[in-house]
Amino acid sequence: MTVIMVILIRFLSNAAVDYEIKRELRRGIDANLYHISTRNGKLNISENFRYQDENICFVVIRRGGRLLAGEYPDEATEDLRKVFIRNKLSRSVVCGGETYYIRDVRIGKTKKNAESKGVFVRGILKKSDADSFYFKIEMISYISLVGILCVILAFEFIFSKRISRELKGMCQTAECIGTSLDMSRRMKADHQYKEIAVLANANNRMLDRLEQTFQMQEQFTSDVAHELRTPVAVVMAQCEYARKTGSEEEYREVLDVIYRQSKRINNLITQLLKFSRLDQGRMQLQDEVLDLTGIVQSVCEEQQEKAQNGVSVRLNLNEAVTTGDISLIAIVIQNLVENAIKFSRPQEEVEVGTGEEEAEVFVRVSDHGIGILPEHSEKIFRRFYKCDKARNANGFCLGLALSKKIVEKHGGRLSVESVYGVGSVFTLYLPKR
Fold it and tell me: Could you tell me if residue 113 is left (phi over 0), alpha (psi between -120 and 50 degrees) or otherwise beta?
C-alpha cells in the first residue's frame, strides 16, 4: 500500500509540476502581450515589457526564428532558435542536454513585403530552474505520507493491542472451560468493538445451550437410573425369594411379578428409543390421511373399557382431516385421554372433541381432576417430570414429553390450560393439509 501511495504521489507531483510550469508560461506571456504590438509593419515594445520574470525568459521572434528582442539563455541559444514555432502550444524540448518548456503566442502580422508573416512572443523556462521549487513540494508530500503512515500504524498498534487483549481473554475462558468443564463461565467483552461483542455473545449463547444440554443429560441419566432402580430391585427381590421357596404356586407368582416388572422396563426402553429416534431424525414419518374423528373414537373406546372409578368419556366430534403418521398421532391422543381418565375424580366425565380452527385441526381433551399449578404448566412436558400430586402415580412421566416431540415433528403444537383443583384442558393442534 505504501509503494502504491509513493508511486501515486510521484505521478501526481510530476503532473502537477508540468501543469504549473505551463500555467506560469501562459500567464507571463499573456501579461506581456499588453505591452507589445505591430502597427504599419513596425514593432512597438513598451518599457513595461518584461524580458525576465523570475525563471522565465521572454523573447520576441519572427516566424522564421529571427530574434527581434530579448535574449535566449546562453547555454542553448542556437538550439532554441531552431525550435519550430507553434502558436499557443506549450511543450517541452531538449536543447543542449537540458529540458526547456516553450510557449509561442502570435501578436500580429506584418505587411506582405516583410521578411516573415508574423511576430511571436516566446516564453522559455528551464526545467531544472523550476525543479528546485517543486522538489520541495514533492518532499513535503513524502514527509506528510510518512507522518500519516506513522499515525495509522500507531492507531493500528493501539487497536490491535486492545483487540488481541479481548480475544486473548476469550481464548483463556474457552481453555478454562475445556480443562475444568466449568460450564458456568462466560466470555466477556467491553463492547468497544461490535464484531468482538457479537462473537462473545454468540459464544455465550452457545455455552448457555451446552450448559442446559449437559444439565438435561445429567438429569436424564439420574431419572432413568431412578426409574429403572425400582423394577430391577423388585426383580432381584423376587429372584432371591424364589431361591428360598420350593412350591410351584409361589414360583408362578414370582414369575408373574418378574414378567410385569420386565414389561415395565421394556416399555421404558421403548419410549426412550422413540425419543432418541425422533431427536436424531431417524424415525421416518408416514404421510397418511389422518381422520382424527376415527382415531379419537377408537382410542376412547379402548380407554373407556380400562377406566376405573366410574369415569366416563363423552365425545363431541366434528370433521377434522389432515395428513401425518397415524400410529404416532394415535400415541399422542392415547396419552392425553389416558392422563385425563387417570387424574379425574371418581364418577366424573372426560370430554374429547375434534374440529377445525382456521388453518388448523384440533383434538381437545378436558377433564375435571386435580388440575395443574401454574408453575408446573411448562415443566410437565419435560421427561420424567412429576408434579407433587402425581408423585405416586404409575408410569414414567414420559407420555407428555413424547407427545410434544411427536406433535412438533408434524409441525403442530400442544397446549394446556389448567385451573388447580378444577381440571385441565389439553389441545392438540395440527396444520390443515
Answer: alpha
Residue corresponding to grid cell 523570475: 54
Is 165 contained in some domain?
Answer: no
Residue 190 in domain: no
Decide the pairing of beta strands 288-291 and 423-431.
unpaired
95: domain CATH number?
3.30.450
Domain identity same for 130 and 19: yes
8-state DSSP, 56: E
Question: Which of 69, 101, 135 is the last residue in one of the domains?
Answer: 135
Number of domains in the chain: 3
Q: How do the residues of the chain divide into helix, strand and coil, expressed in percent and rounded to 5? A: 55, 20, 25
For the chain, the farthest-separated pair of C-alpha atoms sits apart, in whole angstroms, at 159
> What does the alpha-carbon distance between residue 332 and residue 271 come to, in Å, rounded to a whole number?
12
pTM for this prediction: 0.47
Q: Count how many Cα atoms sit within 13 Å of the Cα of residue 101 in the half-sphere of its side chain.
A: 23
CATH of the domain at 315: 3.30.565.10
Examine residue 36 and state whether it is found in any structural domain, yes or no.
Answer: yes
Cβ(431)–Cβ(357) below 8 Å = no
Residues 78 and 71 sit within 8 Å (Cβ to Cβ)? no
Query: Cα(404)–Cα(380) distance, rounded to whole angstroms?
Result: 10
Domain identity same for 6 and 126:
yes
The answer to whether 292 and 363 have CB atoms below 8 angstroms apart is yes
Do 270 and 332 lie in one domain? The reply is no
- The per-residue pLDDT for range 159-217, each reduced to its tens digit, is 777 777 777 777 877 778 777 777 777 777 766 677 777 877 888 888 888 777 777 66
Instruction: Say if 235 falls within a structural domain.
Output: yes
Between CA 148 and CA 154 the distance in angstroms is 10
pLDDT category, 55, cuts 50, 70, 90?
A: confident
pLDDT tens for 411-421 read: 999 988 888 88
Using the 3D structure, point to which of 227, 246, 280 is the last residue of a domain.
280
> String of b and e for 31-60 (b: at least 16 CB within 10 Å)?
ebeeebebeeeebebeeebeeebebbbbbb
Angle at the Cα of 279 from the Cα atoms of 273 and 285, rounded to 5 degrees: 85
Q: How far from chain centre, in Å, is Cα 409?
A: 28
Q: What is the CATH number of the domain that holds 273?
A: 1.10.287.130
C-alpha of 270 from chain center: 41
d(CA 141, CA 359): 72
Q: Which three cell numbers mark 432?
A: 390443515
Instruction: Provide the residue range defining the domain that includes 122.
Output: 2-135
